[in-house]
């Protein structure tokens, strides 16, 4: 297996249902700047990609999930003090398509589990606290068929959060 960009997705596959990575019929990815307008760019990218894959009928659900995942990622990726040197965009959106499933995955530079409140790894923070990300993940859970996350391996910092859609 060459270095054709698939190595970054290795950690992702561990968290996914058992699917053959070689059977990915199509995949696309785009880097997103650490600015809130990146959500709009992610939606446009998703719309164009699903159009190419004849999956435009799934756009509403997928775009909602992509928006939530990207918003969550940006919350961690937006630097408090912007670094002086230009780094690679910290958030990346991947769309991968198999015959009967579609996966959208968003990478961000934080190791904190998605939706964790300030008080530790609570999947859905209580309404008094950081409920915003909890609500977003509730939407992800409602509109996708399954979702998960895990830290990136090796020299890559951060994590990948993914959501799976069954097609057909």
Q: In words, what does this structure look like?
A:
By secondary structure, the protein is an alpha+beta fold. The chain is built from 4 helices and 5 strands. It has a 5-stranded antiparallel sheet with strand order 1-2-3-5-4. Helix 2 packs antiparallel against helix 3 and helix 3 (59-77) packs antiparallel against helix 4. The longest helix is centred in the middle third of the chain and has 19 residues, at 59-77.
Q: Strand sequence of the main sheet, in spatial order?
A: 1-2-3-5-4
Strand content: 15-25%
Major sheet, described briefly? 5 strands, antiparallel
The arrangement of helices and strands along the chain is: HEHHEEHEE
Alpha-carbon distance between the two ends: 30 Å
Overall pLDDT:
77
How would you classify the helix and strand content by structural class?
alpha+beta
General shape: globular
Share of residues in helices: 25-40%
Low-confidence stretches: 1-12, 117-131
How many β-strand stretches? 5
Enumerate how many helices there are, as a single number. 4
What is the radius of gyration?
15 Å
Short description:
The chain is built from four helices and five strands, in the order αβααββαββ. A five-stranded antiparallel beta sheet has the order 1-2-3-5-4.
Considering the chains and any ligands shown, give keywords for the structure.
168 residues; 4 helices; 5 strands; 5-stranded antiparallel beta sheet; alpha+beta
């Amino acid at each position: 297996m060459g270095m054709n960009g698939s190595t970054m997705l290795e950690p992702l596959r561990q968290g996914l249902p058992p699917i053959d990575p070689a059977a990915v019929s199509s995949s696309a990815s785009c880097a997103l700047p650490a600015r809130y307008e990146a959500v709009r760019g992610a939606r446009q990218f998703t719309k164009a990609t699903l159009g190419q894959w004849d999956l435009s009928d799934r756009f509403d659900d997928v775009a909602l999930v992509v928006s939530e995942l990207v918003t969550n990622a940006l919350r961690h990726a937006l630097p408090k003090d912007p670094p002086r040197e230009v780094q690679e965009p910290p958030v990346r959106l991947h769309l991968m398509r198999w015959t009967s499933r579609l996966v959208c995955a968003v990478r961000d530079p934080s190791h904190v589990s998605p939706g964790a409140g300030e008080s530790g790894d609570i999947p859905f923070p209580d309404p008094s606290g950081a409920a915003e990300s909890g609500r977003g993940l509730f939407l992800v859970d409602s509109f996708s068929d399954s979702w998960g996350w895990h830290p990136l391996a090796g020299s890559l910092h951060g994590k990948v959060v993914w959501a799976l859609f069954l097609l057909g």
